[in-house]
Design the sequence.
């Protein structure tokens, strides 16, 4: 398998951050203009912002990296017989947190990941409303940059005297999250949308993110890489590996933590 070295990953991160930031501007234009909400066959919402971001990012990635295939939430999902031949590929969620976009609470993101084999090695998360981009990977470290500012290294942090802060989905609550908090004596919690939760863990604002209900590979890959780059962990609930490019692109539960 061809692996990307650290210098190449850093150069790729620059290009992917710029791509995600431009996609964020496209999304914000639509956010301000107004939009209609449609429902996909699984009853999840989609807007023209999702589609416009997908079209832009997929075109840009094809221009920059024509030899690296793309798997996007809003694109064609090729069968595993073809995907299993991929040594590396991009995973894209062009607008993660469409429910938050529709609610206009600002907690939506653009997620781009590079996966090698079954593992993400680079992840970019852009939060358009906040004007901030996060990126990182297990061999790269993790960084945050506000528009107009310099890149800042970030890292997960151990809980303070008040105990750990738990992350939970704003729009996809699960009773198992409440049970986990009670079982482990966790009393502090942040509800957030989309991949914003991964960013809060990577920068040390929160410490635990147990997920029990369904996500998809494009929801998690960028945040997974970011958390590993920041020094955290990301596993299946039993502590095992959390692989990508599965036959079924739906994920089981996961557990992300500060170490």
Sequence:
């Amino acid at each position: 398998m061809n692996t990307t070295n650290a210098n190449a990953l850093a150069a790729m991160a620059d290009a992917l951050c710029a791509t995600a930031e431009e996609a964020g501007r496209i999304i914000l234009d639509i956010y301000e203009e107004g939009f209609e909400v449609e429902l996909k066959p699984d009853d999840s919402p989609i807007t023209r912002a999702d589609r416009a971001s997908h079209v832009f990012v997929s075109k840009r990635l094809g221009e920059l990296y024509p030899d690296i295939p793309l798997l996007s939430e809003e694109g064609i999902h090729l069968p595993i017989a073809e995907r299993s031949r991929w040594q590396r590929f991009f995973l894209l969620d062009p607008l993660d947190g469409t429910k938050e976009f529709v609610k206009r609470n600002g907690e939506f993101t653009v997620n781009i990941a590079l996966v090698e084999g079954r593992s993400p090695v680079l992840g970019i998360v852009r939060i358009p409303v906040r004007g901030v981009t996060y990126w990182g990977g297990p061999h790269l470290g993790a960084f945050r940059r506000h528009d107009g500012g310099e890149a800042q290294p970030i890292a997960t942090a151990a809980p303070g005297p008040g105990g750990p802060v738990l992350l939970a989905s704003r729009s996809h609550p699960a009773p198992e999250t409440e049970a986990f908090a009670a079982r482990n004596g966790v009393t502090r919690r942040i509800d957030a949308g989309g991949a914003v939760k991964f960013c809060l863990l990577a920068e040390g604002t929160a410490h635990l993110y147990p997920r029990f209900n369904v996500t998809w590979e494009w929801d998690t890959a960028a945040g997974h890489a970011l958390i590993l780059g920041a020094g955290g962990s990301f596993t299946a609930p039993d502590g095992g590996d959390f692989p990508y490019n599965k036959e079924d692109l739906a994920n089981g539960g996961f557990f992300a933590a500060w170490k």
